[in-house]
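A quick aside before the break. I want you to see a complete sequence-to-structure record at least once, exactly as it would be stored in a machine-readable document. Don't worry about memorizing anything.
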Amino acid sequence: MLAVRIERAGEAPALVDVARPVPGVGQILVRIRACGLNFADLLMQKGTYQDTPDVPFTLGMEVAGEVVETGEGVVEPSPGTRIAVYSGQGGLAEYGVFEADRAVPLPEGMSFEHGAALPIAYGTTLLALDHRARLLPGETLLVTGAAGGVGLTAVEVGKLMGARVIAQARGAEKLEVARRAGADHLIDAEEDLRARVLDLGGADVVYDAIGGDVFKAAFRATNPEGRLLPIGFAGGEVPQIPANHLLVKNLTVIGVYIGGYLKFRPEVLRESFATVFRWAAEGRIRPHVSHTLPLERAVEGMELLRARKSTGKVVITV
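That is the input. The structure line, written in tokens, reads:
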């Protein structure tokens, strides 16, 4: 089968021919139809992601497809079931072997492309805003990088939870995407983020995927007793947080790493996934996929993420 692999540390990914895997105990073999790309795929190429596998490995963290074979002990999902999986790796291939208990059945009528665009971005956002930050109706949510893969979901989910949403993104086109997702106020990345947010009354919860100076400005625009969620560092700089400012304003900085829940509280993750897939089936959320590319153009899709030329998700079809 074909797969997009990192063969040696530090090398660029390549489309190669490898043996089709065989499911083991508790596993399923999936005919992959679509794979969502994530910023973490770029970090894995450099070996800087917190869960970078040992080389060689196949990239691709979330997939949708059909179960074709089950390993020992697996009753559900059965062969023929359309499912999505938060895979962590192995998604950019024609077939993949994954743990059966990670699979979520696709709602009737949902495309594979949308199924592959839901788990990580929406799962992370719901986990962050609900389980971790306890966002309340009427609070103000500031989302930075609001047109990106996770940022756009934060705008959408924040509105569903009853928040007033301030969206920050670069340029009129990306801000329009955020507005259509439900943002109440728009701030261009070229503007003074701190001043604009304070003019709007400050932020109660900050959802930041950028880091660096953007996080620092958002930090200074957070209201007393506010909660800050450092979701990622797409800007390249991990911010250093002044503890004395936390003390004076009674702020809370909350870590959110979706993969960690697989190890210590997998039921929380399963509940988050079940909720977002139910919302999608009910039409309450709809993944925004700006680019759909075939497997042989997967590296091109990753470059769209690296250059920030995409909005929402980039999905690779197989």
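Two observations worth writing down. The mean pLDDT is 95. The CA atoms of residues 128 and 204 lie 14 Å apart. We'll return to this after the break.
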